[in-house]
Amino acid sequence: MTLQFNDETFRDDYTYHNSAAAILRFPFPFDRDSYMYSVNMEPHAGGPEGSPFDKRFDVDEHYVSEMRDREITLAEDPLRCQSLPHMELAGWDLLELIMVSKAEDYPELFTLNRDGDRWHWINRPLGIEHRFTFLDPTTLPCGPMEYITRQAQGDFAVLDQREGNLWMDAGMVTSQADWSLDFDIGMNFFEWHAPVPKAHEMGVFQRALKFLLNIRQGSPARRLNWTMTVNPRLDTSPENYHKWGPEKRTVTAENVGRKQFLRVELQTFWRLPRSNALAFPIRCYLISLEDLVTVPKWGRRLHRVLRDLPDELADYKGFAVNRPLIVDYLSQHDDGAPTSPGIFP
Amino acid sequence: MSARMLRVAAVEPLTPLVTRFRFEDPEDRRLPLFSGGAHVVVEMPDADLLRRNAYSLISDPFDGSGYEIAVRREDTGRGGSRFMHTQVSAGDLLRVSEPVNLFALDLRARKHVMIAGGIGITPFLSQLKQLSRLQVPYELHYAARSRAEAAGLRLLNGAAHVHVHISEEGNRMDIGAILSGQPLGTHVYTCGPEGLIAGVEDAAARLGWPQGALHSEAFLSPPPGKPFEVTLARSGTTLTVGPHQSLLEAAEAAGVEIPWSCRGGACGQCESAVLDCHGRIEHNDHWLGEEDRNAQTKIMPCVSRFQGETLIIDR
Ligand code: FES
C-alpha cells in the first residue's frame, strides 16, 4: 500500500477531505442503533487489514498535514506540550514504543537503526533524519516526548501511576475535544474526569481505573469515543473556544452535510517498560456527514443514535444547538431498513 | 496474563537458603525491559499441580538479555519455593509472565531511602540499578539476622550507599535514626516482614512524614492453613481448598478462571464478591479496607482463607 498524503488544512479555509478509501476505513464508533456511555475496552491487538485498528499507531493520508497543524498550534501556544520533570523517562519509553512500532509496521515510511544506545531515525514523509543517543536528552532538539509526538498523529497523555491512581503528568495535546492539558496537568484520574455527567453514579470510573492500573506491557487496550465538531478542526480547545465556538452558529439546513463532522477518538492504552507509566494516545478521525452517509448503514445508524440520544449527552458533547438540523439531515438517509451488527460498513 | 516460555540459564546458591535463578529466551531474543521493583510470576508444573508464584526481579531493569530472581526456600511453605530449589535446573523451560510493577519508585522523589528486611531485599536490587543509572540519590538499609541469612550481601556486591545491619552482631537497625534528618522530598520504601513495615510507618508518622512518601510491599506468598470448602456460585461447583493451596489455585485446578495479577493480595485483580458466609474469612490480603473485611462481603482468593460452615462466592 502506498499512501498519498493530502495537502490540506484544519483551520481557516478548512480544505481537509477524506478520499474514498479513507471514508471506507473510517472508525465508525456505533455497533448498534443506540448509544450508552460505557467504557467498552478491548485488546488493541490488530484488526481488519487496512482498518485504523490494524497497526499499533495508524498512519493515514492526513499524517503530514496534521503534523503541520500541530506545529502551528504549538507555535501559538507552547503550553500544549508539557512534561513534569519526573516524566522524562516515560518520554523515552514513548519515543521507543512509537519509533519501533512505526519502523516495523511501515518500513517504507520509517526506519530505525539501533546500535546500543546510538539510534538512527528516518521519517520519510516528514523528511527527518536524525542520529541521537537514547536516554541522552542533549542529543535531541527537544524533550523525547515532544520530539516523537511532533511526528505522530493524535494527542498523547502520559500518565504516571502511583498511590493506586493515574496522574496526568505529561502530554502533547493539540487536537482535543474541548479539554485543556494546561488545566489538567498534575491531576489524577478522578479530577480530570470530573465533568462527565451521570457516569460517576454508575461506578464506571472506578472500574475503568482498576482496568487501566492493570494494563500490562505487551497487552495494550483500546476504545472508541466520539463527539460532533463543526468544520474539520483539530484544535477545538477551550483556550481557542472564541475561534471555533461561534462556528457552531454557521450551520444551516443547506450546509449541514458539508460543515458538520463526526469526530471519533481512537484511544489506546500502553504500559511503558522503564517508567511503569501509562501512555494514552488519543487519535482523532473526522468525517463529514455528507461523506458518512455514502455508507448506507452508517447513515441509518447515526440518524437513530443521534435522534434518540439523551439531551444531557448532546449537551455534554456540545452539539445540542445543532441537533435538530443534524437529525433532519440524517433522516433523509434513513429508510428504516434494519442495520447489521458491528461497526464495519 | 501473557507469559512466555523461558530457559533456565543459571542456578546459583547464594546462601544455604537462597538461590538465584537466571532466565533467558530460548532463542536469545531480548526480553521486555521493566521498572525497578517489578515482579514476574513463574509457573511451576509440580506433579499434577500448577503452581504460580510471584518473585521480584533482581536483575538490571534496562538489560533485556535475561531475568533474574532470588528464591528463599520455605520448607514449611506451600512447596513453590521447594519446587524451585529441588526440581529446577539449568536448561529447563518454565513459563514466566510479563513483568508487572506494584512497588514502583516514585520518580518525583529527590531522594530514595530503601529499608529491607531479610529476603525483602529482592525488589530493591533492581531499583538500585535503576537509580544509579538515573543518578538519583538513594540509600539502602538492609537488616538480616545473620550474615549467613543475608543473601542480598552477595547481590549487593560493591553497590554504593548501602548500610547493612546484622542483628546477631549487635548492629540493629534504628528506623528513627534513618528517617530523621532526611531532606525534604525524600521517599521511603520498605519491604520485609509486617513488623518492619509497621515500624517504619510508626516512625514516619511520629516524624510527620507525608503519607504519600511512604511505600511498602509485604512478602507475596499465600499462607497455608486448614482445608476448607467453598462454593463457586456462577460455575456451580463446590471445591475443597487444600492446606497448601490457595482458593485461587483450587479454582484454577477445577478449570474456573479468576483474574489475577500479583497472586499475593496486593493488586486487587482477584477481588470476588461473597454471596453467603457462615463463618470467618481469614483476610490475608493488603487490598481490602477495614469495612469490607468486617462485612465479609468480599474476598481475595489469591491469599485469603476461610473457617466455618458455608462460603459462597460469585465466581
Ligand atoms: S491476584 Fe492480586 S490481589 Fe489477588
Automatic annotation (TrEMBL), chain A:
Pfam families: HODM_asu-like. InterPro entries: HODM_asu-like (IPR021848). This is DUF3445 domain-containing protein. It comes from Tropicimonas sediminicola.
Automatic annotation (TrEMBL), chain B:
Its cofactor is FMN. Residues 1-106 form the FAD-binding FR-type domain. One of its GO terms (molecular function) is 2 iron, 2 sulfur cluster binding. Coiled coil: none annotated. The keyword Iron-sulfur applies. Keywords: 2Fe-2S, Flavoprotein, FMN, Iron, Iron-sulfur, Metal-binding, Oxidoreductase. Residues 228-315 form the 2Fe-2S ferredoxin-type domain. This is Ferredoxin-NADP reductase. It comes from Tropicimonas sediminicola.
